[in-house]
What we know:
By secondary structure, the chain is α+β, with helices and mostly antiparallel strands.
Amino acid sequence: MIEFPNFSRSYDRTRHAVRFWGYDSALEASFFIEEDALRRLEPGAHSNNESDFLSAFDSNRDVICAAAARVYVRGSRGSYDLVAANF
Length: 87
């Protein structure tokens, strides 16, 4: 079962997404939630405003982590993308 004890997150300008990490025992998986998905969760998040996207992530962390847990497959790959359709 994947867990999200690490509250670190960062904005990735090249992917237009917020990156965060989950852990399944000793396995680490990277997750990216795209800007469009964050806008769906937080309609006030503006384009090209990193702080708005990070704030939207923080405000919706529980919902985002629940969606990340649904798409996670143990050992399947190193990173997972969450898109608007996941919400």
